TrEMBL record:
GO terms for biological process: G protein-coupled receptor signaling pathway. One of its GO terms (molecular function) is neuropeptide hormone activity. Transmembrane segments: none annotated. Signal peptide: none annotated. GO terms for cellular component: bursicon neuropeptide hormone complex. This is Partner of bursicon. PANTHER family: PARTNER OF BURSICON (PTHR41151:SF1). InterPro entries: Bursicon_suB, Cystine-knot_cytokine. It comes from Timema bartmani.
Length: 177
């Protein structure tokens, strides 16, 4: 079970149940594909049809075109501080430069007899491969009434932030790493 069966100039049996026809029109070739539970039947007039079908459904980037990288980004951070009874003591905020992962990764879609949709998808996403912890100083602090705090020790707040140090392509949805 599994894999593709290429049958050249062989009619598809009319007694197959649960078949789904698919028609691909190319320049001088008209091919019909019948998909069954046990495999795939192809009726074609050309040896090129399987190759044309593969290239028709392939959506991957050319080899070496991955552009997953770490880029600088501006982020507005707001941090609230509460006392032991849960009352707001102060709110601090600031614009901070942090790294982010951004870019394109090689992904592809190809015909498959095994998968329920008829296509095997291999999607890759640009994500962090290593996180670095940084201490950020928030410089604009306010009391619960909105008044600016200027007293030493209250006018700024240090927080820890984890940001991407390196980025690379990972299989999308794979959070096991």
């Amino acid at each position: 079970m599994g894999g593709w069966s290429y049958i050249r100039e062989t009619p598809v049996p009319a007694t197959l149940s649960g078949t789904t026809p698919f028609t691909a029109d190319t320049t001088n070739t008209r091919s019909s594909i019948m998909r069954t539970c046990k495999g795939a039947w192809f009726s074609s007039r050309s040896v090129l049809v399987p190759l044309l079908l593969f290239s028709m459904f392939s959506t991957n980037l050319a080899e070496g075109e991955e552009a997953c990288e770490t880029l600088p980004s501006e982020l507005h951070i707001i941090k609230e501080e509460f006392d032991e009874l849960g009352r707001l003591q102060r709110t601090c905020n600031s614009e901070v430069s942090v790294n982010k992962c951004e870019g394109a990764c090689n992904s592809q879609v190809q015909p498959s007899v095994i998968t329920p949709t008829g296509f095997l998808k291999e999607c890759y996403c640009c994500r962090e491969s290593f996180l670095r912890e940084r201490v950020i100083t928030l410089t604009h602090c306010y009391d619960p009434d909105g008044g600016r705090l200027t007293k030493e020790g209250q006018s700024t707040m240090d927080i820890k932030l984890r940001e991407p140090a390196e980025c690379k392509c990972f299989k999308c949805g794979d959070f096991s790493r």
